[in-house]
Amino acid sequence: MSQLTHKVWMERALTEARLAPAHDDVPVGAVVVREGRVIAQGHNRREADRDPTAHAEMAAMRQAAAHLGSWRLEGCTLYVTLEPCTMCAGALVLARLPALVYAASDPKAGAVGSLYDLAREPRLNHRVDVTAGVLAEECGALLTTFFRARRAPSRASAGASREARAAVRLPPDPGGVA
Ligand code: ZN
Fold this sequence. Notes:
- By secondary structure, the protein is α/β, with parallel strands linked by helices.
- It contains six helices and five strands; from the N terminus they run αββααβαββαα.
């Protein structure tokens, strides 16, 4: 498949990823494409569902399997905005997924080339065709922006909370300067 086609589908995965921060989840999105159309999509809902396995890829694969009526995802390509972790890479192999396209690499948890390469592990009974780096900058930037905003609450919101405190005459922050 051409790089241009890959980009079109990765845009769809990116659109999914952008839905996650609304429920405080890390923005990762995935779509499953078969015969030129999206048959399943998902985004990270770990916080929303309080579920350690609620990764974008798992949601998209479950939906694809339900759509096909089979756990075997024949003829499918999964597009995901971040390199899959060990769980998701394992699930790709279990689903006998023919092809995976991912955007940004994950040097801390990636299991499709970074820390491990489960999708192409010769000792397993299935190997996935992997394309990496499609829209990597855009998908990586979405993550960077999300983590930066989470680490540093904006001055505007700190100011707003001071105002709220003054309005209802709450005592000052215990740790704050009196
Ligand atoms: Zn995962």
